[in-house]
Amino acid sequence: MKRTIYTDDHEAFRESCAAFLSKKVQPHVEEHLAGKGLPRDFWTAAGAEGFLGLEIPEEFGGADAQDYRFNAVWAEELSKLNASISSCVGIHADIVVPYIVDLGTEEQKQRWLPGCASGDIVTAIGMTEPSGGSDLAGLKTTAVRDGDEWVINGSKTFITNGYSADLIVTAVRTDPSKGARGITLFGIEAGDAGFSRGRKLDKVGQEESDTAELFFEDLRLGDDRVIGELGDGFISMMKKLPQERLGAAVSNIAHAKQILAETIQYCHDRKAFGQSIGSLQHNKFLLAELVTKIEVAEAYTDQAVLAHSEGQLTAIDAAKAKWWSADVQNDVLDHCVQLHGGYGFMNEYRVARAWRDARVTKIWAGSNEIMKELIGRDLGF
Q: Is 129 known to be catalytic?
């Protein structure tokens, strides 16, 4: 089915994204895998092309696109390459940067945004803690007032870009007596005394994405590092999560769609019993189902992208897009592995890596169970 939400400008931008990735990134994907992370020259190359500053005002070196459809196009092209690179870039450009743009002081914007746009500053977001994943209101990292400073102690885990980030927008508890209203966001820099990182975590998939634990031990910061209002951190995170979940949905579908297209070609080329394996009735029917699932999920996600670009996407609809796309992606890729037979279980095949990479999408950005809880509450239960 023809997609209708993108204009000629968006498609021209897509061509630029695809050309950059083909020339500057695709040749190095095995290096990224071996290094378990993206090198700095990837970030600066993407920044030089303007791909990291879509959410950043022009005065700070960004493109100030003011149209989420450009973000979605970039995410789709990244996801065609692999899921890891899309998640790393999405965290930086789609998730962290908007906190600084929307909540930061003028000094904070001048300090951080030009580097975010150029790729000289790589960012991460510190939400998840070892003691709890989706329960953001229950976080235990604290900031205690001591004169003119805040003293931060605690830890975060499963942090994408955590091993390489220069700036981490971090949620901490500043007032234990106020529950969710006692959480504040801080901008923590990698050079701050008291900040340290653990090793790169050994994950089942998405090995190109550096994921780490972060530790804060008597880390002292002034009020100039508070992002937004004191005590408004949880509210700010709730307002930003729909964009994170929509970005996940866009990436989920684009990733699965690309691997499915490659699997269809494999089913044309692979012969068994004197014919292409795609001609066998079971496989033919299965591929028909998978293509339809992807297109239907893509249609819903497209409408969510359009709604968000117009400022109308609700948190509930973002939750629907996130959980459904993650489920569809995992279902489609599992079948793609099966269609590849024994080769589908070999890491040298993209389908095997994609299958492993996709599993986490049912967990992160709020688990699928949490998404259903939010939708159920909206139904009055």
A: no
